[in-house]
Amino acid sequence: MTTYDDTNIFAKILRGEISSYTVYEDDVAIAFMDVMPQAPGHVLVVPKAPSRNLLDADPHVLALLIPVVQKIANAAKTAFEADGITVMQFNEAAGGQSVFHLHFHVIPRHEGVELNRHSGRMEDKDVLATHAQQLKGVLGN
Ligand code: DGP
After folding, report:
1. Most informative mutation of 12, 34, 54 for ligand 1 (most atoms within 8 A of CB)
2. Whole-number Å distance between alpha carbons of 86 and 23
């Protein structure tokens, strides 16, 4: 299937049907902690507008979304005292995508520390809650 399906898990989070550790929200996007972090502080930036991924996204949405990705990346760098930030984005199953609503991964990186496996182990809820608080503290909410 290559059309948008609004039963995906991020659409449910956007509709408030499923809970998430949300750290940021504006008219364009929300950001919440990835439950299977590839590094501590791994956060997802998700546009409110529906699209499967980058390939079918409205360019106007992308233009508004990238500044949000930048904002969250800078906040994550500060909150987790990161040496760098990896931004990742996957398109279709063959491209590594498993949730079919556009999202950008923002991952704090530290020198010499390898990433965990993509979509690997579910993180402990207390850890996710603590990391969300750290990020929210920097974002000022
Ligand atoms: P991908 O579609 O390959 O870019 O990866 C999807 C990511 O979403 C993966 O890192 C794990 C994460 N994820 C999967 N299910 C949930 C969920 O229910 N809540 C949250 N917060 N993250 C999820």
Report:
1. 34
2. 18
**Number of helical (H) and strand (E) elements in the chain, helices listed first:** 3, 5
Amino acid at 102: L
pTM: 0.97
Sequence ranges of the domains in the chain: 9-139
Contact 107, 41 (CB under 8 A): yes
Q: Give the pair of three-digit tokens for residue 24.
A: 């940021």
pLDDT digits (tens, 9 = 90+) for 57-82: 999 999 999 999 999 999 999 999 99
CATH code, 9-139: 3.30.428.10
